[in-house]
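Long-time lurker. I teach an intro course on protein structure, and each term I like to show students one example going from raw sequence to a predicted 3D structure in token notation. This year I'd like something fresh instead of my usual example. Would anyone be willing to generate the tokens for the chain below so I can use it in lecture? Attribution to the forum is fine with me.
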Amino acid sequence: MYHNPATLWSKVNSSFSTIVGENRYNSWIKNSKPLILDEDEIVVCFESTYIKNKIDHPYKEMFTNCVRNITNRNTKVTFIVDDTIFINSKLHASNNSSSSTYITTPRQPAMTFGNFIVGSGNKLAYYAAMHISESQKPNFNTLLITGQTGLGKTHLINSINTHFACNSTKVNVISLSCKNFVREYVYSLRNSKIEAFRQKYRSADVLLVDDIHLLANKKETQVEFLHTLCSLAERNKKIIITSEMHPKHIDEFNKNITARLENAIETPVKNPDYETRVKFLKARGVDIPVDSLEYIARNINTNYKDILICLSNLIKYNNPTLITSKAVVADFICNWGEKLSLEDIARVTATTFGIKMNDIFSGKKNKTVASARQACFYLSHKLTSEPLAKIGRYFGNRDHSTVLFAYKKISMNKEDGQIKRTVEKIEKELEHLNR
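-- Reply from a regular --
Happy to contribute to a lecture. Here you go:
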């Protein structure tokens, strides 16, 4: 008997609830969501690794048998973690409860290679991620994806995770954020479970860690992470990590880690060009007129996060037009100081001072580089709402007091006139960039 997706999911939930009991079902299964749902394959998404682990080992076999009893087939069952589905479902529910004069924001799909928008700024990272996912013997075993927030690093690392979850059930894949790695490490130390922690991560076939720049200043955790990298590398296991920049540009980062990652393939993701921005908007623009989407693409050139903010604001209106699009963009640009990225400031400053952008992040102390770095501190504090600690961390993991000192030094006219004029020039270029 054929079951349509809705009927199949309803029967599976009802049957499994009876098997494990209502309390367990409500705690671990009820809020899961199907990503793929047919009689040949079911992929179930959980909001967190913690919830997935709670259900994976004790109940997955029971869940699989439950599904197969209903379908009368050897249905493939996979559990994965994808919090974007849950975030967007909550947004969808919130929008549905609002006034009928608005239309709801369409739920973004799960992060996969299939819906990743490829352009000139990210194609190297995309093809490298595809290669390490699909090849049993890739040309490299460690992939480092670098770039600022909102440019697709997390989408790529989640795409790799989803690929393995759907195609390689016998592969031990561990995917988590750097913050969660740190939390687990601290927990294992406090509860005398460090050996279990090491066994878990060093037995991975594929390790994916998002935002490892957050390991800066965490010396003990860095040592543990280094041993994990070495253990996996010695056995030719796959390692995929993301970071705002290569750790070699971050002070207070273990030099052995940076040396180990020198052998990795580094693939940067950069700001999308106009054509890529248009493709991105068209993929998510529902029934928005093309000229409205193109207007956003021409005027918002920072990152996908900012573009989505404008798109989300635009589709709140019934029958949005080009005039509506112009109003939305104008409102966004009025708050451009809040949208300006630290990368924008670093890039424009480096160009103006005639140095490489990486010099600003480095430990170089010659006069030109030091002046450029101070200009970045000053402009970042003045033009963005980022906290001093984050600014310092971004520009080579400097202390927040260093940022504040540079800001006061320039703002109180303690620098020579030439540097003040240069800073004013950079500020005007940044304003033009975002307008």
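Some talking points for your students: The chain has four domains: 5-86, 113-268, 274-336, 342-434. Residues 84-109 have pLDDT under 50 and may be disordered.
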